[in-house]
C-alpha cells in the first residue's frame, strides 16, 4: 500500500564529502578542499596502487570543490542535486544571474519538464460515491405489519460515478473526455462531455460539447488581468425537449496578500446565486469564509483546517447556516502513504440529521461513502460516528497498513539496492581507497593529540545497531562462530583524520558520504558510536546518522556514557 518509490539513485553529497555545512562560506569550502587535496594529491604517493587510489579521490574532491565554489552551480546543486546540473535548458541561462535567480530559473525549467512529461500521457481522474442509509440502526422503524427483523436494515440509497481522461494534442492544446452516472432510489441519469482547451497568453479558453438531459454546448475561459487579479467565466446552453436553458458562471479573484485570496462569484441559470469568499492558506492552517445570496437558498459558511505537517494530519471544523437550516462538520484527514489518504467527517444538521462521510483518496481516484445514521441529532449516533472511524483506523493501521508499508519499504530498498549495486560497490571501494591513503596523516594527527593530551578516537563504529547495544565489528553466528558484522563498519581511522586542534565536528548530513565511510546497510536507520579520550578521560557518544557532532562538547560532561 505504501508508495516508497522516492528512493531511486544514490546521490553525491558534496557538502558531506568535504565535511562542511550547507551554509558554508566560500572560505570554509576552500579550506576543506585544501586539506583533502593535500591528503589525496597523486604526487604525494609513490606506490602505483596508492597513486591510482589517490587520483580517484583527488578527482572526486576536485569535482566537489568545482561545484560548491561556483555560486551558479552551487545554487543549482542546492535545488535538486546533481540532476539539476544536468537539466536541459541551463545552457540558455546567463551566468551573470544571482543564486536566487538561478534557483527560480531551475524551478521554472523543472516545472516545464514535468508538464511536458505529464502531457505525454493521459491523466485519468475518477470519483465513486456510494450513499448508504443506516438510519435504522439508531431509530428503528416498526409498524403492525413489520416487526423490524432481528437486524437493522442498511441499504445503498444512491450511487454515482464520474471519470475523465486527458489527451494532449500539442504543447498548448488538450482534449478531455469526461462522463458520469447517477442512481438515486432506482432512478438513473448520466451525461458525457468532450472538451478542448488551448493555452493562450496569460490564460486559456475551452470549448465544451456533450449530452445528458439533452445536448449541451459551452464556452469557458480564464485570463490574468494583472499579477494579482484574474477572471474566470463561462456560458452553457442546454437544449432540452421543451426548453432551451442558458447558464452563466463567472469568478473574479484577487490576491490580497501572500496567503490570502478573495473571490466574487456569480451564477445564473436554474439556480442563480452570487457569493463572496475569503480564503487564507498558510503552512500550518487554512480558513475559508463565504457568503451566498441565491435562489433557492441564502447561507453563510466558515471552515478552519489545522495542518500537522510532521504527523501528515489535518483537522477540520466547518459551520454552515442559512435558509435551508444549519450544518456543522468536524473531521480529520490522514495521509497513509505517498499517494493515499483517508478522510472521516461527521456532519450534524437540521433537518439532515447525523451523517458519517468516509473518503479514500488514492492518487487521482476518490471513493466517498456518505453514511446517513439518523434523521435527527441523536447523541448515540454522534458518539459512534466519532469513535468508530478512529478505532477502525488504528486497528487497520496496526494489523494491515503498517505491515504492508513495511513490506513495501523493504521491497523498495531491495529494488534500489539492485539499481545502485555498482554505485554502492564503487562507494565502498572509494572508502577503502581513502582509508589506505590516510595512514600517514592518521599517525601524525594521533601522535600530536597524544602529546597535547587532546582528542584520541579509541573506537568508532557506524551502521545499524541499537543505541543501548554493546555493538562490535564482529559477531557470533547461530553456530557460535565469530564472523564480520555486515551492518557495521570501523571508522576510527577516518574520524581521527578529521580531528583538528583537539576537536571533531561533523555536520548534519548522512555520514556515509564522509571520506572513508560508506553505507553498510542501505535504507536502514544508522547510528554512529564514538569512544574517545580527551584530556586523559574516557567518553562515549552515540548519535543518529544525520545529527551534528561537536566533540568534546557533545560528550565531555558524561565520561564513559553516551
How many individual helices? 10
Low-confidence stretches: 4-8, 88-96, 555-562
Indicate the overall shape.
elongated
DSSP strand tally: 25
Distance between the termini: 38 Å
Account of the protein in words:
It is a single chain. This protein has ten helices and 25 strands. It is elongated, with a radius of gyration of 32 Å. The chain has 562 residues and is α+β, with helices and mostly antiparallel strands. 27% of the residues lie in helices and 40% in strands. Mean pLDDT is 85; it is low at 4-8, 88-96 and 555-562. It has a 17-stranded mixed beta barrel. The protein has a four-stranded antiparallel β-sheet with strand order 21-18-23-24. Helix 2 (26-40) packs antiparallel against helix 3 (48-69), helix 3 crosses helix 8 and helix 4 (71-80) packs across helix 6.
Brief summary of the model shown:
The protein has about 550 residues and is an alpha+beta fold. Helices cover about 25% and strands about 40% of the residues.
Task: Compile the SSE list and pairings.
Layout: H1 14-18, H2 26-40, H3 48-69, H4 71-80, H5 82-85, H6 99-119, E1 125-133, E2 155-168, E3 173-184, E4 187-200, E5 203-212, E6 214-224, E7 229-239, E8 244-255, E9 260-268, E10 273-281, E11 285-294, E12 299-308, E13 313-322, E14 325-335, E15 340-350, E16 353-362, E17 365-374, H7 379-419, H8 421-437, H9 439-451, E18 455-463, E19 474-476, E20 482-484, E21 488-490, H10 492-497, E22 504-506, E23 527-534, E24 537-544, E25 549-551
Parallel strand pairs: 1-17
Antiparallel strand pairs: 1-2, 2-3, 3-4, 4-5, 5-6, 6-7, 7-8, 8-9, 9-10, 10-11, 11-12, 12-13, 13-14, 14-15, 15-16, 16-17, 18-21, 18-23, 19-20, 22-25, 23-24
Helix pairs in contact: 2-3, 3-4, 3-8, 4-6
